[in-house]
Write a structure and sequence with these properties.
2 copies of one chain form a homodimer. In chain A, a hairpin with a 4-residue loop joins strand 8 (about 170) and strand 9. Chain A has helices spanning about 20-25, 45-50, 60-65, 70-75, 95-105, 115-125, 145-155, 180-190, 220-225, 245-255; strands spanning about 5-10, 30-35, 55-60, 80-85, 110, 135-140, 160-165, 170, 175, 200-205, 215-220, 235-240. Chain A has a 5-stranded parallel β-sheet with strand order 3-2-4-1-5, sandwiched between helices. By secondary structure, chain A is an alpha/beta fold. Chains A and B meet through helix 1, helix 5, helix 6 and helix 10 of A and helix 1, helix 5, helix 6 and helix 10 of B.
Chain lengths: ~260, ~260
Amino acid sequence: MKELVFVGLGLNDEKGITAKGLDETRTADAVFMENYTSCMPDFSLERFEALCGKRVQLITRRDLEEEGGIVILQAAKVGKTVFLVPGDPFIATTHVALRIDAEKQGIKTRVVHGISIMSAIVSLSGLHNYKFGKTVTVPFPDNFSETPYNVIGQNKKLGLHTLCLLDLKVTENQYLSINQAIKLLQKVEENKKMGIITPDTVAVGIARAGANNPILKADYIKSLVNFDFGEPPFSLIIPGDLHFMEVDTLIAFAGAPEDFRRLVK
Amino acid sequence: MKELVFVGLGLNDEKGITAKGLDETRTADAVFMENYTSCMPDFSLERFEALCGKRVQLITRRDLEEEGGIVILQAAKVGKTVFLVPGDPFIATTHVALRIDAEKQGIKTRVVHGISIMSAIVSLSGLHNYKFGKTVTVPFPDNFSETPYNVIGQNKKLGLHTLCLLDLKVTENQYLSINQAIKLLQKVEENKKMGIITPDTVAVGIARAGANNPILKADYIKSLVNFDFGEPPFSLIIPGDLHFMEVDTLIAFAGAPEDFRRLVK
């Protein structure tokens, strides 16, 4: 069968893939993988190849962005081809262009979903899914932007939580830390003085969602800024209004101080 | 090892679980599962038991809500216990109370994530993840509410997309259809006349996300209301402002009419 199947690897390690994704990989004629859009800290290519019984060819950003993924498209013209992507294949839009190109060239495509950091973080936090507003990425300091601060402010005004993804350059092993992200938000606060990020603002930091040892810590900004979250990847949630069940969960599973109870609206 | 591991089953069928989740199930002393919070249309308990090599005990809503999940807690006090949940175990907050009770009784708990409908739908739609606002559930007509209409309006004002989950009663095999959901929104429009849901409003209907044959259709409300989406489960997205890449993807993979191009902002 000539086709291109986009398969999500899920989170953290080689066993984050679904049973379905593994089946697709085992029955493929050619298997490609990219590992530059997200960080899977405990992933071993050797163990993954043993698990799926196939050789996996690593694809670089250059292969996709400059060469248009031609090596993948050529393989998909002669046999079943699997392209493995960390997380879910299309939660980020990086690979949409490749899928459109494939279809234009008459190659059938399918999607096998993977676990996305987006849902894992919401799940770990215990915060109510339908109370999240717009998501935002906090960039590295050399790309400084007021947007994350403004999005948090807009969400808070509506009582909504903000999921902040923290910027990363996987191939250069650079990860914006939770502490750095907080400091950037504080810097915008210093300029704009809108009271959106104060020392008593509540935040939830999450490291290594999807790993066996994720770190989850809810606290006031003034304390959280000094908390050691260990190794990446990192995310940050700035909650809006809190329901008492959300506070219960933050106290039970994110080490929130007992006095969070006074925050319940 | 005495512990309670919450494992996500992911979407659609018995192979939506991760390799990690399957390992946890294979090494458990007791395995429980609930199948009333979400619909997994192609799931076979028999095939799943063959896959994991364990007997799986089905848990009802009554077991959890009236009995407090005591049968699960008792098993977790004597051995490794896995509780299987459709999708991700904690994207809905249904099972948070059980986890809190377990920890209070000195039972260690862990989470193995599963693919959530939340991320699969965003991924399938090709719409940009960071442009989604608050999510909302459209209830059955006997629970009529203006909330979904208001949330869509609030998101649109900010240029944001709205993911509408459609209500379901799995045990009674009742699913709000995409067509019914649109009609409910139209009914609110008739009363409120705010121009949020007009015949030319754009919408994306999705049936069976996570299955091998998901149906994805983007069109104007006036056409979509008559589209046959087949079997459940269903979801609906009402987009806000559209980027040209989003329109490209809707045309390529959701059968959107070519004149969607005029909508690009």
